[in-house]
Amino acid sequence: MRTVLGAVDPPLIHIATANIRRPVPRLLTRAADRWERRGPALARRLERERPTVLGAQEVFPGPAEMMLAALGSSYARVGEGRQRGRRGEGCPVFYDRDRLELLESRQLALSDAPEVAGSMSWGNPMPRVMVVAAFRERFDGRRFSVVNTHLDPFSPRSRVRSSEAIRATVRAAGAPAVVLGDMNAAAGSTALRALQRGDLLVDAWGAAAERVTPAWGTFAGYRAPTRGGARIDWILTTPDITVERIAIDGRPEDGIAPSDHLPLHAAIEVPR
């Protein structure tokens, strides 16, 4: 199968976001959702696409190790579990060390106590986090930041407050930035309006010079993708970043959907 975006040459950077859908006990789910079926399909997709930076959601330690192996020996990851003790499900950022030097990283709770792992404040029934990583391109030293997150599906208030916290983090960084994640919110929602307030962040899909695929809805639920469905998975960038190409990969892997969400891929150029 061909890549939807695949390898890009410097100064372009291939960046992606993917909710991989956490493994669920076999007796509690249907065949399409079983990890033993989906995991190998996800690995094949990662081996083929190998984005320079991947922000993933719903990732437990076992799947994280599998994803890292599929991406290849040059890759590393930052980000841990969102529970107290940094356990459980997380939002790691995977990156290619051959292309990028990691300058710093941190994981913050989306709460009134961001430094306290597992903390909750805004009506979400489980902890939510953002993982922030700053990189330098080895090709010519360009610097940029990445924020990866997974907003709460139940609490609109939590999504808005989390969006405000992410936006404040991007503003404080004072550098070109990309925000990746499953926002559980579509275009025009209060959460997306909070993220994009003041034109600090723009939708990469709308800004792209070329859209490689149709505008599929990203929560496919293991069904064939549909045009015009809600895009709840997002790549947003600061306006100084150029988005050359963008795609939503709705193709199965040998008839198997790796997740109930569809991944987004973009080729971007960070300013000098």
Which terms summarize this structure?
alpha+beta; seven-stranded mixed β-sheet
Low-confidence segments, given as residue ranges, are none
Distance between the termini: 35 Å
Count of separate DSSP helical elements: 5
Question: What Rg, in angstroms, do the CA atoms define?
Answer: 17 Å
Portion in beta strands: 25-35%
Major β-sheet strand ordering: 3-4-2-1-13-12-10
What is the string of helix and strand elements? Answer: EHEHEEEEEHEHEHEEEE
Helix coverage percent of residues? 10-25%
Q: Give the biggest sheet.
A: 7 strands, mixed
Give the structural class.
alpha+beta
- Average of per-residue pLDDT values: 97
Q: Any idea what the shape is?
A: globular
Got a strand count? 13
Architecture blueprint of SSEs:
Elements: E1 12-19, H1 35-49, E2 53-57, H2 61-71, E3 75-78, E4 93-96, E5 100-109, E6 129-137, E7 143-150, H3 156-173, E8 177-182, H4 190-196, E9 202-203, H5 204-207, E10 210-211, E11 233-237, E12 242-248, E13 264-269
Parallel strand pairs: 1-2, 7-8, 10-12
Antiparallel strand pairs: 1-13, 2-4, 3-4, 5-6, 6-7, 8-11, 9-11, 12-13
Helix pairs in contact: 1-2, 3-4
Describe this structure in words.
The longest helix is centred in the middle third of the chain and has 18 residues, at 156-173. The strands form 2 sheets. The chain has a 7-stranded mixed beta sheet with strand order 3-4-2-1-13-12-10. Strands 5-6-7-8-11-9 form a 6-stranded mixed beta sheet. It is globular, with a radius of gyration of 17 Å. The mean pLDDT is 97. It is built from 5 helices and 13 strands. It is α+β, with helices and mostly antiparallel strands and 272 residues long. 20% of the residues lie in helices and 28% in strands. The N and C termini lie far apart (35 Å).
